[in-house]
Amino acid sequence: MTTLSRQLPDFYEYNENETQFYLRQMRYPEDMALVHKWMHEPHVIPQWQLNKSELELQVYYEKALADDHHRILIVGVNGQDVGYTEIYEGKRDRLGRYYDGDDTDLGWHLLFGEKSAFGQGYLRPVMRMLGFYIFEHAPSTKIVGEPDHTVKPYAVVVEELCYEAQRLIPMPEKTAKLYYCFKDKFYQKFGGYLTASQQAQKKIQPVAQTEAML
């Protein structure tokens, strides 16, 4: 049986303000050196706690990639891999122990591993991309999130992007704040971004086809 998360495409492109963003399925073991580097970055370690040896990470990702309740994807900007996301099924994830969710709920975790991506204004477009990626390819009516409630800047961004705070959740490693992002409200606010992205891709596609014929 194909699970909800496994129905999502292996590649997704999104354009905003003349910048190309994309999601692609993590390639194992080809991407391990890149992920290993990111997991040892000082800004990543506190939240992800995966600053393990290469062998330990290989074992971790062999298990993770075999788990059919989530997808592991690389985030790219203008052709460069800059980050990493895990998209998971809320009820089948450990989060399912802490909230009464729907079978179609999906959530995500995100990190920017490349320091060159800092301060470029990429967070909001990438979060919009994740929303469209999920809502366009899954029957989900809401996205869930459970970030550490002490990360104050994050709270400002998610509320701006239609994520509504629900309540605090006491988890072993953190006190998380549960968020819901409802599909109808997300499209009411950001549907125009998707239309603009699709139009931008149509303009690019004929050029690519012409080059392929030469």
Automatic annotation (TrEMBL):
Domain called Acyltransferase MbtK/IucB-like conserved: residue spans: 24-71
SMART domains xref list: AlcB (SM01006)
Pathways involved: Siderophore biosynthesis
A Pfam family that the UniProt record links to this protein: Acetyltransf_8
Superkingdom of origin organism: Bacteria
Protein name as it appears in the record: N-acetyltransferase
Species in which this protein is naturally found: Acinetobacter cumulans
